[in-house]
Amino acid sequence: MEFAFTEEQQELTEAARNMLVESCAPAGLRAMLETGVPLDAARWGVITEMGLPGMLVPEDAGGLGLGVGDFIGIAEAAGYAGLPEPLVELAGVAVPLLAGFADDRGWLERIVAGGIVAVGHPVNPFVADADVAAALLLGDGDDIHLVETGAVTLTRQESFDPFRRLFRVDWTPGAASLIGTGWGLAAERGAVLAAAQMIGLGQRCIDMAVAYAKERHQFGKPIGSYQAVKHLLATVQVKIEFARPVVHAAAVELALGTLPARARVAHAKIAAGEAAELAARTAVQVFGAMGMTWEVDLHFFLKRALALKFAWGGAATHRATVTSRIESLPIGPAATFAAELTAHAPDVKFQGMK
Q1: What confidence tens digit (pLDDT) does each residue in 91-128 have?
Q2: Domains of the chain (ranges plus CATH)?
Q3: Helix (H) or strand (E) holding 155
Q4: Residue among 112, 187, 108 at smallest CA distance from 146
């Protein structure tokens, strides 16, 4: 089985990555913290012009009509850049949800034009980026409501990552705001996209550590020339390389909606989280004492990686999903991909994260 991205997918990802890295420099992140601005309007304008928020929007609503597999590289690039704007959850979670309702109330077209809708999924205790959203998707039991931010009360919550702004939302459900029923695969989409961001974040941490190891000298030699430092960095890079294809496979298989597909998402979230945390901690170790200081940009990426590790379900939740798949379906080389297991258990039911 060939498992590779197309030339068009690679070109789109590369263009987005270059734009994000260039426009989202650490100096700009520091300026945002100093001014308290939650969103860089110029950068969001470029992101919108490139059509990234509308990648998963159906073509008849002005989008590109692509899938999560097409968007996964963009999510990784957003992680690598430490992007503070809510591109990933907007395009990868909110858009598919809205597209699944009979009436999106015009919000898909607004998203294509730069509008933002935040997602208050019950798997997360707080809503991220609610302060920059024009509307929120909120759950009341199994019902989903689309509520404009002017009709809710937002209370800021402390976050380990200052760019992942979290809010408690106080609101009152009503018939007018009810838009649909059932979250579907929203939690799984959030988890696999968080995993992709963590792959990017982990890679950024290692790239920064490698660059520093080439410049920092001890005993007349770059510290990167010492075997101990080489082994630390190589170990992390191997862990990232082993986690990345799991994330890609999870994105491609997600649409199946089966237990094996959900287990792949769970595996991806666990593997990416472990790789990103090891990368961040190893990078701090390579930088030495200064790695813990505010002056070193590394902390932006470390904080985002650790914050995302606990978003969209923690490790215990995802391990339970993997265990359920192992106990109920065949394992081994012939059962590598979720699609290969569909014939074995078409009726296996799995509720996923609620």
Answers
A1: 999 999 999 999 999 999 999 999 999 999 999 999 99
A2: 7-181 (1.10.540.10), 186-341 (1.20.140.10)
A3: strand 153-157
A4: 108
Here the tokens at position 85 are 């704007």
Q: What single letter denotes the amino acid at residue 102? A: A
The vertex-76 CA angle with 71 and 77, nearest 5°, equals 95
Query: pLDDT tens digit string along 184-203?
Result: 999 999 999 999 999 999 99
Give the whole-angstrom CA distance, residue 244 versus residue 61. 32
Per-residue CA distances from 75 to 62, 178, 197, 286, 292 (Å): 21, 29, 5, 27, 27
Place of tokens 């799991």: 246
What is the gyration radius of the CA atoms in the chain, in angstroms? 20
Q: Which amino acid is at 325?
A: R
Q: What residues does 136 pair with on adjacent strands?
A: 118, 147
Nearest residue to 68 via CA among 203, 182, 188? 188
Task: Give the DSSP letter of residue 182.
Answer: -
Residues 127, 167 contacting (CB under 8 angstroms)? yes
- Provide the pLDDT for residue 1: 52
Token pair belonging to 336: 């590598």
